[in-house]
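Slide 14.
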Amino acid sequence: MLHNLEVSHVKSTFPVSLGARITGVDDKTYSSTGESFSTIVLPNSESNASKKLQADDVSLAYELYCHIETY
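Slide 15: predicted structure.
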């Protein structure tokens, strides 16, 4: 189960922006046409800055797990 996903390095030599859809990551970034993606990579760019793509609060799931009887 995915709880947290972060990208730490991205590089694109493509001449236009690229929208990426990543399984398990919500599509919360929107292009100029209104289409949603997990992230958008800018044209001819490179970045080493970390970007959090998905972070879920697992405290409720943990609390529920603690209250379920195990068999």
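Speaker note: The chain is about 15% helix and 35% strand.
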